[in-house]
Design a protein that fits this description.
mainly alpha
């Protein structure tokens, strides 16, 4: 009974050959959505920019959740006997949670109908974009190389 709960694929610990390609594609989608937000801000199309902010929030939440379930759990188990590498993985995971919290709080705030996308928004959004760019580079160049069968 409930044997499906014991399978490695149900707990997110199964190696997936295309997972890193999918995550890299997710990053490209995030970049495209950010570009659409910036384009609409430049054209003073706040309503459309907010639509893309909602899309960005959804894409980010989905990506963060999938990374947490499929990548971090896998890497922590895979490197359980390698304290140095496990520490690197845990540091990535911890910094992701900070970025995730900050970005989602920001998006929750600015996707509200009552909020305007003013200069304050633009400054904070640039900071978030820079943090995401840096994070994506580190993930793709360091973290994703740790994902092995």
């Amino acid at each position: 009974m409930f044997s499906f709960l014991k399978s490695s694929s149900s707990n997110g610990l199964k190696y997936e050959t295309k997972l890193i390609k999918k995550f890299t594609a997710d990053h490209k989608k995030l970049e495209i959505t950010i570009s659409k937000i910036l384009e609409n801000l430049e054209s003073n199309k706040e309503k459309k920019a907010k639509k893309f902010l909602e899309q960005l929030k959804t894409e980010m939440l989905n990506h963060f959740m999938e990374e947490d379930i499929k990548l971090y759990r896998y890497l922590k188990k895979y490197y359980a006997d390698s304290s140095e590498t496990l520490s690197v993985v845990k540091n990535f995971e911890s910094s992701l949670k900070t970025i995730q919290k900050d970005a989602i709080n920001f998006l929750d705030n600015y996707t509200q109908a009552s909020q305007t996308l003013d200069d304050s928004f633009k400054e904070e959004f640039q900071d978030i974009i820079e943090a995401l760019k840096s994070r994506i580079e580190k993930e793709e160049n360091k973290l994703y190389t740790l994902y092995k069968k």
